[in-house]
């Protein structure tokens, strides 16, 4: 016996068939993280949801205190280096001028990512506004690429100091140092403007869940629903990686020349001084480049939320925190300047307290 179907049921059947056809013919972009958060386009997204770092409240609070300790250590280390170099006239040399800029960039870089992650862990939330996410992407790219450009400049400083010491004052005068530092900062600014403007002009329809503890541009691109715009931004990223590889080749060639010059030094004391000046910089470059390149060049089969989180933490949080230790452990001049600055501050504070009437 044939049963008649009501017009409303027929409409629901037709609608389900249409939507099933659409889903089968859609481009092979990543599946939405959750139907609840699926958005039609980027204009309707008012906020993003960052990765939850822990499942329980106790672990969230533990992570908050851990991140707070790392953040305070980075602030203290880079702040001491910046203050010591700025206040001690004996450190007003090109090498320490670039180190001052590096410390400032480390402070800015870690202050872009960690405070929001700490706030989310403390208040048991994962929200970040659309404008806040765009600002985080912009400033992180700005500071991270400016830092890499500065590390490239610092390798040139080491090369001139060891391979061409007689021309050091000519090639690295105050005007030349200021120009190179300004070029490093400007390069980071242009890089950040290009990527941020391109990434946030792409339509986003794969939800608003970012699988990272901060707004990382690679995770934002996973939310794209426009294949052509996605490919354009990925092309820009790979072009940037080619520039990064070019800078890395320049750094490697500089150190090849440096090590050849050091090995020809007749004095063991001279070799020790040269190595103590170059090895910290080489360690910082190796840590920075290896983690950043692995984060963006690893295959999709190796990608997982936990691995992505670990790698991003290594290249965005660890270098700013450990750079002061790497540069300060074997640098006696810097240690002495930091100690003098510390004791001078204590003495000045003690003198001001003695002058306060009781």
UniProtKB/TrEMBL annotation:
Identification of the protein by name: Olfactory receptor
Protein's job: Odorant receptor.
Gene Ontology cellular-component terms listed: plasma membrane
Species for this entry: Gallus gallus (Chicken)
Residue ranges crossing the lipid bilayer per the database entry: 62-84, 96-115, 127-151, 172-194, 236-256, 277-297, 309-329
G-protein coupled receptors family 1 profile domain sequence ranges: 77-327
Main location: membrane
Membrane-related topology note: Multi-pass membrane protein
Alphabetic keyword roster: Cell membrane, G-protein coupled receptor, Membrane, Olfaction, Receptor, Sensory transduction, Transducer, Transmembrane, Transmembrane helix
A GO term for molecular function: odorant binding
Keyword Transmembrane (UniProt): yes
InterPro entries (UniProt xref): GPCR_Rhodpsn (IPR000276), GPCR_Rhodpsn_7TM (IPR017452), Olfact_rcpt (IPR000725), Olfactory_GPCR (IPR050516)
Family of the protein in this entry: Belongs to the G-protein coupled receptor 1 family.
Organism phylogeny: Eukaryota, Metazoa, Chordata, Craniata, Vertebrata
Coiled-coil residue windows: none
Localization annotation: Cell membrane
SUPFAM superfamilies xrefs: Family A G protein-coupled receptor-like (SSF81321)
